[in-house]
Amino acid sequence: MTRYLLTPVAAAATALALLIPAAKAETNFGQVAMHVAYMLQNHHYSKQDFDDKVSGVMLHNYLNMLDFKHIFFTEQDVASFKDKYETTLDDHVLMRNISPAIEIYDIYKERVKERVDFLKKALESNKFTFDSKRTIEIKRDKAPWPKDKAEQDKLWLDIIEDNLLAERIADETRERDEKKKAEKAAAKKADTAAEVKPEAAPEAGKVPAPQKPAAEAPKIAAKKEKDEKDLTPKERVLKDYTRLLESIDENDTKDVVNFFLSSLATAYDPHTEYMSTDESDNFKIHMQHKLVGIGALLGQKDDGAEIQGIVVGGPADKQGQLKLNDRIIAVAQGDDEFVDVKYLKLQKIVDMIRGEKNTTVRIKIVPADDPSGTRIIAIVRDEVPLKEKLANAELLVTPPDLGKTLKVGWINLSNFYADMENNTVSTSVDVERLLRRLMKEKIDGLVLDLRDNGGGSLDEAIKLTGLFIPAGPVVQAKDWRGSITWRDCENEKPVYDGPMIVLINKASASASEILAAALQDYRRALIVGDKASFGKGTVQTILPVERYMPFFSDKKGAGDLKVTIQKFYRIAGGSTQLKGVESDVPLPSIRDVLDIGESSAENALPYDTIPPRKYPLFRKDAFPVEEINARVKSRIAANPEFQNVVEESRRLKEKIDRNTVSLNLQDREKERLDTEARRDKQTEERAKRVKEVAERIKENGFKTYHLTLDNVDKPDLVPESAFSKEMNSGMRTASKDDDSGSDESKFPYGVEPVKLETIHILRDLLELDHKPTTAAKTEDKAAAAAKPQAQ
């Protein structure tokens, strides 16, 4: 059975090649490119030939992928590329010739080196005064390339001045934040000291017990490396561009071909994509939520990779020697020699650490607690489950302060995952487990939170829809021939038939849109959130390129082609392509002014409609949308949190439309101080509201219980006070100063604004609708069964 993917990111391979390559020669990337081109012609929904027109789009994509700000190439460079390749790239690729990709990349690399050299000289010789009235464009992806070197030099002086100015302002902001943090800590310490009672004096004749001396902190002899914030603005700017050049130098032929073929794929539509073997492997991990490795989260850190998280119960955790913030400087496979990983890209380091199950990897680290030394750690690779993105849920019990107490079930789903090869992981199975537990707790209503859910498995989206509606059509699809098919959910009756809201935002895409659209068309759930979802209405499948390559060729680096083969449609006939799913109840969102979504992508397929299918409505009457929206509008007008969002959205829209920023220090300082003052005021006012609510409700606030796939079957619910981030993610991470920024306790009732308003909307729905919940129906049936029956 063919499995389809409905995600705007890379997708997993559906099958493996059956033939084993006989040769050991390096992968012929010219041959790979030719086969990718033929595959696109033959399998893409548009059936577009790889001709001169596509050649021009491919060149455009490639140049923009390399130089998306239009600051490295000049118009002369671009004109030269167009003269040579705008109508001939198709011919070169079909002749297995990828030399144009290498040639353009080499020129790009040379241009970056020239600009870095120019930057070094400018930092040494130019005096940047930050007192002009000049401005610089923020987004330059639509701007023309500089006409020549002279115009480019002038542009780059502005770029350098802007970078230096940004670093200078960042320093001042950091100093101000540290000062505020110190003042806050001192005030907290003073408050704590005032609450502590002095110790009683020792009784006469008694000698106080001697106190143990405090343990001394370990002495570190090595000189600490200069931290990023300790560098001067000039040093940081130079370091950033030097890193860019190093990264570009590090790319090999495989990387360049990846860029080149990705440019070809996206010439057909935004979601057709060429994937290297690394990208395919990463998507499998994303879909299956497991990998084979050591169970550590890596992050780039200067000249190596830093341990930023350790999976609880994973191989590294069990081995016990690897610690958070340790830095990896070399990697060895088994007993082989160590390979220095300094200055390597993070992905290459990750690839070296992952491997086959039950094999050993040795890593050389600089310990976080001893930067002067090194340590070698051997870890046996094993399967590592990744829990952070798995479905989880909450049971929210509303406080009396908000009216009649409600029990709200809240399911969080960040993607539609599935193990497409072994069927060991299933979104629908996991959500059903959580749902049945919430129903056991007799919830009054359910919220399915699909915010930021980019999609995933079509099969799982259909099965999940079937948890909420009886058997019937869920989605339609049309192929290049115009042939229309549809998919049904097969549950005879829904698992849950009570009041329901689906929460979306502009980043809810693909499979999320299928589910939301179906539940909206069936009148099964109220859609709440941003004005509309992402707008991806296309279906992709995966074609391993190796299948199409000759028998006697090395296919290990051939990669996969994710290709659009169908468009999908709502059962009511309309497509979600470009338009997305529109919310029944829209809430203010800053994403509504951002340039995101399918409509902002190049080469997007058009919107269209097909005939609707017959399907039974879940409810006879439409939702009381007008009444609910009237209530929401009234609450939003009185809610400072949403008014702040409205105001910030307006300011951001003006800034986006203006698309320039001043190079004048005083102007930038004024803008920064105005922004900080405005946000400080918002924070102070929020803190005041939090305090007022806390004093009013005392201990009678929200009661929140967290459900994960680990604790869902346990008899006792886990309250919020006993729940840690580690319990949800399964990963131990280093604490960060900014972690508190997303702390919901900073909001009134300890619930972030969209979540709180969604609960209000659920209450509105219950009050206006009076539809009994599943739990209520069950209780009524049980009561009826207990009554004596006439014989």
UniProtKB/TrEMBL annotation:
UniProtKB keywords: Coiled coil, Hydrolase, Protease, Serine protease, Signal
Ranges for region Disordered: 173-231, 722-749, 772-791
Molecular functions (GO terms): serine-type endopeptidase activity
PROSITE patterns the record matches: PDZ
Enzyme Commission designation: 3.4.21.102
Residues covered by the PDZ domain: 284-354
Signal sequence, renumbered to the chain: 1-25
Record carries keyword S-adenosyl-L-methionine: no
Coiled-coil stretches: 665-700
CDD domains associated with the record: cpPDZ_CPP-like (cd06782), Peptidase_S41_CPP (cd07560)
EC main group: hydrolase
Start-end of Basic and acidic residues biased regions: 173-200, 222-231, 734-746, 772-782
Keyword Nucleotide-binding: no
A Pfam family per the record: DUF3340
Biased amino acid composition, Low complexity: 201-220
Domain of life: Bacteria
Family, similarity comment: Belongs to the peptidase S41A family.
NCBIfam families: prc
PANTHER family: CARBOXYL-TERMINAL-PROCESSING PEPTIDASE 3, CHLOROPLASTIC, TAIL-SPECIFIC PROTEASE
Protein name, UniProt field: Carboxy terminal-processing peptidase
Species of origin: Prosthecobacter fluviatilis
